[in-house]
Design goal:
single chain; 283 residues; alpha/beta; 10 helices; 13 strands; 33% helix
Length: 283
């Protein structure tokens, strides 16, 4: 039997995983994804991503899904729900089981919902698995809620909804090397234009670098005391002193320690960083 997981799985958060695992429980399973976010096709602007495309597929497959199958949204955007169901899900993909969330919509202008899907499945002898709403502290778990918490610096809430620490990966670039003169050499990274941007500030972090994992202290923003060339991530990696320009590092954010601040002097900044390091070590 072929089970198909339906939805937009940016973040592959706890509610997404309920859908994916229900599909993965069957002998054969696929996750149906769009190559471009429907909002990007319709409005020209997609929501900021929680994961890039490669990371998304990796986490989907880690749930036990056998394969990700990609559609062009342009191909189906004008299909009525019934036509999408019959031509894509049944004829093209050969679904025996469909799995989705309680708020799934499909078809032209989101005309179809779970009630529509249930009726179509019953008429065609298709099994339907619908995952219930999941919440954290009374708030529904969703990609939009997670983005909101990340932008607000509420990283612990975002991580609880994701089911893993929010992270980003990127090439290490050269900075101004001022951190080195202060005794806190940092690795510098830029954020992809399509990725969600955390609230500027200082975070306790965990760094995966050169095959090893370290605790760290990450400043996100423009570092107003010293000044940087644009919005970036600067991480002081504890117990690590190698030069690694051009390497890739994964940064997990675990706790928001304080907002970004302009200090009156470099000495005041140094004293605050020392305090931040001790707090980060305790996280």
């Amino acid at each position: 039997m072929l089970a198909i997981a339906l939805g937009n799985f940016d973040g592959v958060h706890l509610a997404h995983r309920a859908v994916l695992k229900s599909a993965a429980a069957f002998h054969n399973s696929i996750c149906l994804l769009f190559r471009r976010h429907p909002a990007e096709v319709i409005t020209g602007k997609a929501p900021d991503r929680l994961l890039n495309a490669v990371q998304t597929e990796q986490k989907i497959l880690a749930c036990g899904i056998k394969q990700c199958v990609y559609l062009d949204f342009e191909q189906v955007r004008d299909m009525a729900p019934e036509r999408f169901f019959e031509e894509i899900l049944i004829k093209e993909l050969g679904a025996d089981v469909l799995c989705c969330g309680y708020n799934y919509t499909f078809g032209r202008q989101k005309a179809g919902d779970v009630t529509t899907l249930k009726a179509l499945c019953e008429a065609h002898g298709i099994e339907l698995c619908v995952a219930d709403e999941m919440d954290f502290e009374g708030e529904s778990i969703s990609s939009s809620a997670i983005r909101r918490h990340i932008r607000a610096g509420e990283i612990e809430k975002a991580n609880a909804m994701l089911g893993y620490p929010f992270f980003y990966e990127g090439e290490i670039i050269e900075g101004k090397r001022l951190g080195r003169t202060l005794g806190f050499p940092t690795i510098n990274q830029l954020f992809g234009a399509e990725m969600v941007k955390p609230k500027p500030g200082v975070y306790a972090s965990v760094v995966t670098l050169c095959g090893h994992t370290y605790k760290g202290l990450t400043n996100i923003g423009n570092n107003p005391t010293i000044g940087t060339d644009g919005f970036r991530s600067e991480t002081y990696v504890f117990d690590f002193e190698k030069e690694v320009y051009g390497e890739s590092a994964k940064i997990e954010l675990h706790a928001f320690l304080r907002a970004e601040k302009k200090f009156e002097s470099v000495a005041a900044l140094t004293a605050q960083v020392l305090e931040d390091i001790e707090r980060a070590k305790d996280v």
